[in-house]
Amino acid sequence: MSAQPARFSVPARLTESVRATGSPADLAWLAGLPRALPARLADRGLVAERLAEPGGRGSLVVFAHRADDLAPVALKLTRPSAGAAEAAALRVWAGRGAVLLLDGSDEGAGPDAAGGALLLERLHGEIPLRSLAEAKAMLEATSLLRRLWVPAPPGHPFESLADRAAATASRLAERRSLPAAADAAPLVDEALEALALAGDGGDWLLHGDFQHGRALAADRSPWLAVAPRPLVGDRAYDLARLVLDRLDTLAASPGPRGAARRRLARLAEAVELPAERVRAWTLLRAVDAALGAFAAGDAGRAELRLEFASWL
């Protein structure tokens, strides 16, 4: 018999994120989670153990085990329609460098079209790649990315990087008029110019949001990627998010400008990609994150990302 976690409540980080950025459908999904979770567990014959805390900003993860054989699993409930692309990417990777999607012959496994539920291999959620020293973490991260980068399969359902970049450019054009972002205009212009020079990096399946917190320790592999926002395009886009990781630590280091440039160059060299392409995508992602922070009223976070962009 399955059961929901004792005193189940939606994690605060998920609640705050959905309320701040969610659509009406997302808000309805959030309100229905306390009812949906026990139903999804019962559908799959699972016994809940505990929620992943603090959890993500777009999904709820519960650690559970199968009632019949006690096999440990993780059940992930995602915002409406958000799980389809993730599930498709996990199927392509089939456990190679990423958490395994437990579909196959398992009844009830895989994505639930109505509920956005993914049944996943259980990883060690309390041990992210971020727990390693930076130099070691970056080495492991680039090794993992090399495993994830595979040619996009024919007829794939994934968003193109060109479309995501166009949406980012449109968002920058809209947010550059924010009063708090007035001083960022030169960096916005430079980011958009860099985007135009980024060029075509091929049709590779990308994680889309790879960082040290999106790789967890596992039993069958030292580290496996989780929570992709998959898309197809230039591998340098994935690397750009990694360049931006641990920004607070980088800013506190001696000579952060030089440290930022060395980090970018070393990561590009590690995966044999042109540093200028990595710089272009990094600049775009840094400025977009900064203006997003301004829009959310987080001036401190915004200014740090703009400062980082100026170091590049």
From TrEMBL:
GO biological process, one term: secondary metabolic process
Pfam family, one: APH_6_hur
InterPro entries associated with the record: Kinase-like_dom_sf, NH2Glyco/OHUrea_AB-resist_kin
GO MF annotation list: phosphotransferase activity, alcohol group as acceptor
Keywords attached to this entry: Transferase
Superkingdom in the source lineage: Bacteria
Name under which the protein is recorded: Putative phosphotransferase
